[in-house]
Amino acid sequence: MSNNLWKLLDTIKSPTYQWVDLSHPVNEKTPHYAGYNTLEMSEVFTYDEHTVCASEYKLVSQYGTHIDPPSHFVEGGRTLDQITLKETVLPLCVVDLTAKVTNDIDYAITVDDLTAWEEKYGQFPDDCFVAVRTDWSKRQGEDFFAPDETGQPHYPGWSLEALKFLSEERTITAIGHETPDTDPAVANLVVPWQGERYLLEQDKYQIEMLCNLDQLPATGAIIACSFPNVSNAPGYTARCIAIYQK
């Protein structure tokens, strides 16, 4: 009986490799869209009464770090349980745009940003996951949505052209970002969720509200995304990790 996979697992668990948690902890302070309720938790069984602990949680499917399958926007699109296992473990490419979003919090990721990455690191590989680092996940509380004096949120996102480039000129499987939405907040004032709708219509999935992308190299890591196998679900809170060789 071959134990090559066990040997490989021993290798990637060795000190030569770094494991990074890319998901926010799930609790009452977890960042989430203002239109969604905060997590509610109640104790169903307690040690004192039942000698065992069990809790009941109530949360929206898009809470904190979460996956959006196509059905989140596309009627008849693939649901959470239809994301294949092989799609959940992918080569990870990290595009660092922290400098640009520091100067412009409404920044929209461009095709030039993506091709500049490729000029430095090579073309995005087939069936990869492209994540954009903005360090937005370091923001806390209200600052995560950066509302102005009128209450309008401000945060960066993807341009439609950049998403079309990855979907039509490259063969990616998924994208990810640290911000609450695919589109910049101000872009939603013009055409709500235009980029997100387009991406999910291409049968891709995305992970929103990632964190700790600053701990990763631009290329060479793999990402593994896990979530409950909920039938017909339009999304769910996700636990994602990245592994790379130091």
Question: In a few lines, what is going on in this structure?
Answer:
The chain has six helices and 13 strands. By secondary structure, the protein is of the alpha/beta class.
What does the model show?
- The protein has a 9-stranded mixed β-sheet. A two-stranded antiparallel sheet has the order 2-3.
- With 246 residues, it is of the alpha/beta class.
- The protein is built from 6 helices and 13 strands.
- It has one domain (16-27, 61-245): Glucose Oxidase, domain 1.
- The chain has helices at residues 4-12, 47-50, 98-103, 111-121, 160-169, 194-201, and strands spanning 17-21, 40-45, 54-58, 66-68, 89-96, 108-109, 129-133, 157-158, 174-177, 205-208, 221-226, 236-237, 239-245.
- It holds the Pfam family Cyclase.
- InterPro entries: KFase/CYL, KFase_sf.
- It comes from Candidatus Enterococcus murrayae.
How would you describe this structure in keywords?
single chain, 246 residues, alpha/beta, Glucose Oxidase, domain 1, Cyclase family protein, KFase_sf
Shape: globular
The CATH architecture would be 3-Layer(bba) Sandwich
Helix proportion = 10-25%
Strand composition percent: 15-25%
